[in-house]
Amino acid sequence: MKVAFLVAPEGVEQVELTDPWQKVKDFGATPELVSTDSGTVQGFNHLDKGDTFPVDRTVDSVSPDDYDALVLPGGVANPDFLRTDAKAVAFTKGFFTAGKPVAAICHGPWTLVEADVVRGRTLTSWPSLKTDIRNAGGTWVDQEVKVCDAGPNTLITSRKPDDLKAFGQALTQALESAGSGGK
């Protein structure tokens, strides 16, 4: 199994990238870092620069067909940049069209809002996205993790870094189900 981690060149909350990445590896799947530009992405620890990470592939050279699932880490600047990039938005939407699992944490659902895939779905996020999600036709809940199977795929969302344990468990369960032919 291969899992795409879609991030912008800057602004990803580092722990929201590295923690699920490790969970995917521990599960036995292969994570790939996909970005809008080649080179490296700059991680952040809130507002302070963290580590850099090498980009495996650019969004213009991949398709949802190349992957079994998608992870959208947060950070404020990261999804704000992604939602303005048409190729990143189309790539994200493609996972819903294909019925593949998608996991988004913190501000990550901003990209989902832009891809118009939250209508009729229940999800969580950083609280400041509540109105955006509701305006896009979704239902926002304040929960550690929310797994929504109301659409063509499994959507996993969490609010913040403190929720990463539950987020990782839900992601692993979705990968296990996808690997066995389930949703």
Structure report:
This protein is of the alpha/beta class and 183 residues long. 33% of the residues lie in helices and 28% in strands. The strands form three sheets. A seven-stranded mixed beta sheet has the order 6-3-1-7-8-12-11, with helices on both faces. A three-stranded mixed beta sheet has the order 2-4-5. The mean pLDDT is 96.
Largest sheet: 7 strands, mixed
How much of the sequence lies in strands comes to 25-35%
Sheet with most strands: strand arrangement: 6-3-1-7-8-12-11
Please identify the structural class as seen in this structure: alpha/beta
Order of helices and strands: EEHEEEEEHHEHEHEEEH
Mean pLDDT: 96
Q: Provide a count of the helices.
A: 6
Instruction: Name the shape in a single word.
Output: globular
> Uncertain spans, ≥5 residues at pLDDT below 50?
none
Distance between the termini: 14 Å
Radius of gyration over all CA atoms, rounded: 14 Å
By DSSP, the count of extended strands is 12
Q: How helix-rich are the residues, as a percent range? A: 25-40%
